Amino acid sequence: MADDVAAVVWDSALLDYDMGDHPLNPVRVELTMALARELGVLDRPGVQMITPEPASDLDLTRVHRADYLDAVRLAPIDPFFTGWGLNTPDNPVFDDMHQASARICGATLAAAQAVWHGAARRAVNVAGGLHHAMPARAAGFCVYNDPAVAIAWLLENGARRVAYIDVDVHHGDGVQAAFYDDPRVLTVSLHETPLALFPGTGFADEIGGPNAEGTAVNVPLPPSTGDAGWLRAFHAIVPSVVRAFAPEIIVSQCGADAHRLDPLADLRLSVDGQRAAYIAMRALADEVCDGRWVATGGGGYALVEVVPRAWAHLLAVVTGDPLPPQTRIPQPWRALAGSRRPGTTVPETMTDGAEPPVEPWPGTSEDAVDRAILATRTAVFPLHGLDPHDPRD
After folding, report:
1. CA-CA 20 to 30 A from 313: which of 58, 65, 274, 376?
2. Is 297 helix (H, G, I), strand (E, B) or coil?
3. Beta carbons of 127 and 140 less than 8 angstroms apart
4. What sequence ranges are listed for the domain Histone deacetylase (predicted)?
5. For the chain, how many helices (H) and strands (E)?
6. Active-site residue numbers?
7. What is the pLDDT of residues 51-63, one digit of tens each?
8. Cis peptide before 199 (omega within 30 of 0)
9. What pLDDT does 60 receive?
10. Beta bridge partners of 220
11. CA distances (Å), 21 to each of 18, 34, 168, 309, in order?
């Protein structure tokens, strides 16, 4: 394995996944890459830039039905098209939708292939993370499910155990559904409770299908959960189940929409808390699978204030040392961001001024977050030989 190499998958053509006047605006990806470039992250020693190709039908049909691919191709040229979750407010059709969606999948595939073949230890596609798409249905702004497509490729190419960690504010339902009955894939999702937020799934008792019990792990958190509670939940659950599962590679979806400024959800993380999550995922990969880690983006709708900073931190963690939180944002990027989204407050530094606390789970508590932690641990820890009540597990 190339110990000192990290792959960044990028092509401006990834911005063609553009639903028009829609929350999922590709400007967030454009600004992310521009900020990482201004901060020197993409010029670090050992960074390998990869230009992706669109995923082939063979790649896509490891997860999606062939007739659904036909529908995606047809929808933009038929003004009366209905069905398959397409041509809806969440998933409007757009020109060359199949090609743009397939390229997102191809980028995450390229990241997975670089890591699995040993060309890089870690890899990232910030344009990816479209985790809601189902085998024959678009959902939640997602046409094709790039993390699931990449995981399916890994399984077909020799991986025996893959762990998927999803920190988007919305439940990673499409990836969970793709592998719910497959004991080779552990899916872990931390998200705002489905009682309050789309897609309405991701309860603690969703634990995996027959012969795969314990391989779906869901941590539904109450609205207004901030850095302290979120990170407490992460550390009380994720490392334990991932260590017990012993994956050969970790795939992450790093949606930035759990931030307190995100307009579509109600968790209260800071950019600093998100940075801490990325550092924790990299450390876990280093511990359990020789550093093999594939990271993707995901949701995030504070297009200037949050997403570019969060994912520039992600790019830094993937490619080397984390950026110091107090790093000042270069003026050329601030001017670019202001021109792309006039009237938006453009941040000046890479921090929200928060020092994410490290609070161990107490084992029992009337706090709503701690009750959620216990519910998840009770549902899945015994299936991994772990004690749900012992904070040391």
Report:
1. 376
2. coil
3. no
4. 22-317
5. 11, 8
6. 132
7. 999 999 999 999 9
8. yes
9. 98
10. 191
11. 9, 22, 22, 23
